[in-house]
């Protein structure tokens, strides 16, 4: 198999799990699938097969009446201490993911984890091979449910006000150590929340950190997932379209030994 030339300009940071993902479902589909009773606020986002940090995304959260709502905000949690919009955007790129191990203690994330939790819906996400094994280094994979059911990433969100007092909301997804087939590609993975935990996770009245962290621990985290090798076209943020998730054939297994 020929070596792929990959430049840092277009690559997601390979140290960050899930630096790109896809969502191609309409709000009506998400409202039905996630039993959203308060509807959708915000514009309808176009189908996006290459979502990158700072882009506008959908999240699902409880409103003040504890009813589920679908809202739009940007991906990457804005650091609470940001003083300008430029600082806010810069901070987002390094805060797209929070680790299960430290989400309750890191200054950027801990308040959101305690008080502002959400679900981030995804048709699938991309990961680049970084582990020793049969896959070529930096080979992208598209990971999704075999039954096409939407993935529900555990997430957190927050509100920040810019220098003009304008409120800007942002979110981060929560990652954990990879398991099963996924650990052969990358050592971390998003935390997928099963449906029977959605109510408790979204409950605005649940502020006990130990109770909340316990919701992130369960078995069969990667059940039903498929990891398809895909073209390196996804490496460039300018590329978009359903062709990015089409599986490709890999050559003979490659190892370092």
Automatic annotation (TrEMBL):
InterPro entries in alphabetical order: SRAP (IPR003738), SRAP-like (IPR036590)
Molecular functions (GO terms): lyase activity; peptidase activity; single-stranded DNA binding
Keywords: Covalent protein-DNA linkage, DNA damage, DNA-binding, Hydrolase, Lyase, Protease
Keyword DNA damage applies: yes
UniProt xrefs under Gene3D superfamilies: SOS response associated peptidase-like (3.90.1680.10)
Biological processes annotated in GO: protein-DNA covalent cross-linking repair; proteolysis
Family listed: Belongs to the SOS response-associated peptidase family.
Protein name as catalogued: Unannotated protein
Native species: freshwater metagenome
């Amino acid at each position: 198999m020929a070596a792929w030339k990959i430049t840092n300009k277009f690559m997601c940071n390979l140290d960050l799990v899930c630096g790109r993902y896809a969502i191609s479902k309409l709000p009506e589909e998400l409202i039905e699938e996630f039993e959203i009773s308060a509807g959708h606020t915000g514009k309808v986002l176009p189908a996006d097969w290459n979502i990158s940090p700072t882009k506008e995304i959908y999240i699902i959260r409880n409103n003040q009446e504890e009813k589920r709502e679908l809202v739009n905000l940007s991906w990457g949690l804005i650091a609470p201490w940001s003083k300008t919009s430029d600082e806010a955007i810069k901070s987002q790129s390094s805060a797209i993911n929070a680790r299960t191990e430290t989400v309750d203690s890191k200054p950027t994330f801990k308040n959101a984890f305690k008080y502002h939790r959400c679900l981030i819906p995804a048709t699938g996400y991309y990961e680049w091979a970084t582990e020793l094994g049969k896959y070529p280094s930096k080979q992208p994979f598209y990971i999704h449910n075999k039954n096409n059911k939407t993935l529900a990433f555990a997430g957190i969100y927050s509100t920040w006000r810019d220098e003009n007092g304008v409120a800007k909301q942002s979110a981060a997804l929560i990652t954990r150590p990879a398991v099963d087939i996924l650990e052969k590609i990358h050592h971390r993975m998003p935390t997928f929340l099963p449906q029977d935990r959605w109510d408790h996770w979204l409950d605005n009245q649940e502020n006990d950190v130990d109770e909340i962290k316990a919701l992130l621990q369960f078995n069969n985290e990667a059940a039903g997932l498929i990891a398809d090798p895909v073209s390196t076209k996804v490496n460039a943020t300018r590329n978009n379209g359903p062709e990015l998730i089409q599986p490709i054939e890999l050559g003979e297994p490659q190892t370092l030994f």
